[in-house]
Amino acid sequence: MLGNLGNRFVFPAPQPSYGQQSYKRNLCWIPWNSVISPNRVGTEANSSGIPCLWFPAPKAATVILFFHANAEDLGMSFAVLRHIRDQFKVNVLAAEYPGYGLLHAMEPSEDAVYEVALTTFRFLVDEIGVRYSQIILFGRSLGSGPAVFLAAQYPVGGLILVSAFSSIKAAVQSIVGRVLAWTFTERFPNSRIIANVSCSTLFIHGEADSLIPAEHSLKLFKRCRARKLLVTPSKMEHNSNLFGDASFLAVPAIHFFGFPGYYTASPPRLPAYLFEDPANRARMLKDRKESLPPMTRPSWLCDCLAKGDGQQMDVTFCRQENSVEDITIRFKEQESDPNEPDELKGGQSDIHGRSPRDNPPCHALDDGDLGRDWISVLKQPLDLGGTRQVQLYGTTTKKHSLKREILQWPSDAQIRAPRILRLTEATYKTPTGRF
């Protein structure tokens, strides 16, 4: 009973603002994944798939995967999605939540939202061929939950969090007080898994937000160990138009991520059958599956029986064995040593990782001691402007970062996920040689 009451509070879905005949050029249906959601595949109620809005940009290689807030659906997000595409010159894909819009008949829950997020993300990667580094996750309010959930597991190109909460329980406490918040089951524990995020992360939270105080984003910002930026516009409220003032989103995002992104001759494009009428599309998918040869289990989903080379395995979420607990690591703020040189201290450029050889394949990150040595660098010479693969082991702290391994750290050296180091000034010596 309390769980149902909590779901109604967390997912206050409005009346659907769009229908199957709305936005015909943008509305598409991504099929459910039989591995991620086996109970939804093959049922008449879910035959249409996940309704999404797709905004392609000419020659753009980057895709922003957008997760909307809890009191709106895709129809209410249409204008801001189009603005994101036009302002940043990127492709935009937004997925609907269970219980919202054209999925209004489906029961909303934390797990159901994760299913939608993981299914759309894997479709971009596995079916469309979008690389992890080309995907930027964007979560607003409730959407920060699935956005952080994905960013904590995959080496994506970036993460944007607008009006995010540290956790649902903390958000409820901010609204109704500590006593009532105690009755709520924890959902979307962003503050517990944000330390696993290794991509560049932009936090935006208005100081005038009376619903979710800006302290939530500040807490997430402090726990995030990647390259990061926190922006708190003084006039921005929880439901402010993000493009009503350039200082809210446009200026910070352009400066932080360098939009527009790079162009490509083969930009990501969704197949035409996804835009067909759901009934016709279901028949087309059935015919298409019957004509294809049998497929093996997708290599990206861990089944704990993988025999391949561990170095080639993706760090993914095993729905059958894992939960959010498995991608949570202990995170403690550590005071820096005042006697330690500045160039040896960790900072916003710290990244974390693990060795697939050291950990079971179904665990996203090691839950062991954060203080152990974790990195080795390939020692071949590296030319100006070149790149070098970096092998990561375990996790990092402020005192155990890549900077500690480099005696001379150039200010414009860049660390890019997954595990690529680029030197742009010269070749620098390390304690063990050159690279």
TrEMBL record:
Pfam families assigned: FSH1
Domain Serine hydrolase: 159-232
SUPFAM superfamilies in UniProt: alpha/beta-Hydrolases (SSF53474)
Stretches for region Disordered: 331-366
InterPro entries linked to this entry: AB_hydrolase_fold (IPR029058), FSH-like_dom (IPR005645)
Matches recorded under PANTHER family: ALPHA/BETA HYDROLASE DOMAIN-CONTAINING PROTEIN, CHROMOSOME UNDETERMINED SCAFFOLD_38, WHOLE GENOME SHOTGUN SEQUENCE
Annotated protein name in UniProt: Pentatricopeptide repeat-containing protein, chloroplastic
